[in-house]
Amino acid sequence: MTHDLTADRAGQFARIALGHVAREYPHKADHVMTGDGDIYTPRAVHSIFFGSFDWHSCVHGYWLLARVRRLFPDLPEAARTDALFADAFTPAKVEAERAYLDRPAARGFERPYGWAWLLMLAAELRLGGSPHEATLRPLAEAFVRRFHDFLPLLTYPVRAGTHANTAFALVLAARYAEVTGDASLRALLADRARDWFGADRDAQGWEPGGDDFLSPTLMEASAMAALMPPGDFRAWLAGFLPRLAAREPATLFSPAIVSDRSDGKIAHLDGLNLSRAWAFRAIADASDQPANLRDAADRHLAAALDEVAGDYMGEHWLASFALLALTG
Questions:
Q1: Is 1 exposed, middle or buried (0-12, 13-18, 19+ CB in 10 A)?
Q2: Average pLDDT rounded to a whole number, residues 306-319
Q3: pTM > 0.85: yes or no
Q4: What does the buried/exposed string (b/e) look like for 148-182 if buried means 16 or more CB atoms within 10 Å of the residue's CB?
Q5: For the chain, does the N or the C end have fewer beta carbons within 10 angstroms?
Q6: CATH of the domain spanning 7-327
Q7: Percentage of the chain with pLDDT > 70?
Q8: Which DSSP category does 40 fall into?
């Protein structure tokens, strides 16, 4: 079985995102308070990305809408998306989001997951020829500077299966660098990926963890696929995952079981199945096992694609990962 993005499914994803990007509560903050003056309410502090339970989910909810708008411009949801974007992406609101980064306590705000998703949103707006791309650019450039400042300081990569994962951020930031022609950013990403991952061999695939939504193993492979020349990547992959033909490590090829989708952490495992599908598709053509990896992607998609709505703990973010898996 293969899975493709249809107009009907794209419309479903858009309706899901339109239902939560401006939903202020419930809300989980990434906010450090240093005094009474820092007391937080989402919309008062984040003029654009106050919805979707948390800042980063709101950002990639907007990314979802931008991508669906670009790929399916005639959907009925396009008019609502246009109205939302016109209200959200104003110079004043973008500056308010950017100014938040000036707070001394915000140095680690959304690092690196939210940074990378903001760049993905900016790249998607540019690909779609959106007038809002120029408006959002000061915020995107602020996060590019953060990558330049932070990555040289990161002696060791973070290999977690959650938001801090370094490799996932590299993949999304590499997309922005490609779309915008930012050679300096891409060179930095490629250099750090080589330093962190270039000598890795024979990955054991000890995963998933109980609340993973990313595969540390496959995210690393995806980052190297995005940032290495194809021939070099093929050679590296042969050493990193030498038993792909035998579908080993077996843990990578087995979709995760989700026991309770009302539990926000356990629901992460639906996202793991979707992000694994995306990663399998990303590395398939650069490997010597393309059919094997595409089949693994399809089995992971089948396990999670119909689970993107129903409980808000998953609904506020899973459709973005489904769209990523279906469109790259």
A1: exposed
A2: 96
A3: yes
A4: eeebeeeeebbbbbbbebbbbbbbbbbbbbebbeb
A5: N
A6: 1.50.10
A7: 99
A8: -
